[in-house]
Design goal:
about 210 residues, mainly alpha, 10 helices
Length: about 210
């Protein structure tokens, strides 16, 4: 029953369509029909041309992940698996939103917000890799994927650090790896289309 409640909490919070609601209320538009159609911070900024709106969407989406983890920890206390499950389903419903015909964001902000609590070293590693990657290639989508994959590799090879800095403490590295891989798969799926577009644009430039 604890697992079911954790899933429900995460799925409900993650499904709140932040960008859709803010753009609908503030600009009177359906963000799924504008720009890339992505229901996230970057498309919100590009469609609205407002840094405030983009930042607001980013913060609220991160809070969805953070609250999904925090509430489960508050209710069920010292089990790493339960808040991890809640976060996984929060990211899933954010990326494939049931209220928007399963359209959604790319999951990074929500993942980031949740991992701040259950594994705070991971966002630091991710930001470091992302900063280096973006400095080298100047591509946000590519940097997102590179930093996510490299972060997973660090999780895979740094067993002692992972277990030491997980909160609540995970019982085994396999548990952490399972949820890390699950999040990576969800995030990767949502990056396939923009990555393909990036590759097509690159090929077009080469032909010129």
């Amino acid at each position: 029953m604890n697992y079911l409640f954790s899933i429900i909490i995460g799925y409900f919070l993650g499904s709140i369509p932040t960008a859709y609601l803010i753009l609908k209320i503030n600009n009177g538009i359906d963000i799924t029909q504008y720009g890339t159609g992505n229901v996230g911070a970057m498309n919100s900024y590009e469609v609205s041309n407002s840094k405030i709106i983009g930042f607001l969407v980013l913060i609220i989406d991160a809070l969805k992940g953070l609250l999904s983890v925090y509430l489960v920890i508050l209710i069920f206390h010292g089990d790493f698996t339960l808040p991890a499950i809640s976060l996984m389903f929060a990211v899933l419903s954010h990326c494939f939103n049931p209220w928007l015909n399963f359209k959604g964001g790319r999951g990074l902000a929500t993942s980031f917000g949740g991992t701040i609590l259950i594994f705070p070293v991971l966002p630091i590693i991710w930001i470091l890799f992302w900063s280096i990657s973006y400095f080298l290639n100047k591509e946000i989508i590519l940097s997102n994927l590179i930093s996510t994959v490299l972060s997973l590799i660090i999780v895979s090879i740094s067993h002692n650090m992972i277990l030491r800095y997980s909160f609540p403490h995970a019982d085994s590295i396999s548990t952490v790896l399972f949820f890390s891989i699950a999040l990576l798969i969800i995030i990767f799926i949502k990056h396939i289309d923009p990555l393909n577009e990036l590759i097509r644009n690159h090929k077009t430039k080469e032909k010129r």
